[in-house]
Specification:
Blueprint lengths: L10 E7 L2 E7 L14 H12 L3 H4 L3 H15 L5 H13 L6 H22 L21
Antiparallel strand pairs: 1-2
């Protein structure tokens, strides 16, 4: 029987989308998506997002840029600007290239490291901050 209080996606079928020719995935209530670089993790999430949010379908190519811009705006509001990434994003948007600059990959690696550290802290029972308390600030409980 479906749990309408806590709905979740149970199955995803993707055909002819980016690097997926034909895939059928069954999901659990809570799902973690991990894998090596360039295997299609982001494409999998983008395929789901395209179905769930029609507005997203027009902007999915700039998804990484939108996330970084959100982080930049938050950094500015906290008086901790990240000038290096602001310059990279500004230059990237002026060039109108298809591929994001390599520095976004570096920012993604940094984010992945933070997420890995956070998961380790949760798994070992250490205190962490939860949304919205941590929102784009230190996620580890007052140690950073």
């Amino acid at each position: 029987m479906p749990d309408y209080k806590n709905p979740f996606i149970q199955r995803v079928q993707i055909k002819n989308f980016r690097n997926y020719l034909d895939v059928d995935v069954t999901l659990d209530h809570k799902q973690v998506i991990i894998g090596e670089n360039n295997v299609g993790k982001t494409n999998f999430l983008r395929a789901i997002q395209l179905i769930l949010d029609r507005d997203f379908s027009d902007n999915w190519q700039n998804f990484e840029v939108q996330i970084i811009e959100q982080i930049i705006n938050d950094s500015r509001s906290r008086a901790k600007p990240k000038i290096w990434i602001e310059n990279i994003i500004s230059q990237y948007l002026k060039e109108k290239t298809v591929l994001p600059p390599p520095q976004l990959s570096i920012a993604s690696w940094i984010t992945a490291g933070l997420c890995t550290n956070l998961l380790f802290c949760i798994a070992t029972g250490q205190k962490v901050k939860y949304y919205p308390k941590f929102y784009l600030s230190s996620i580890i409980d007052d140690r950073n």
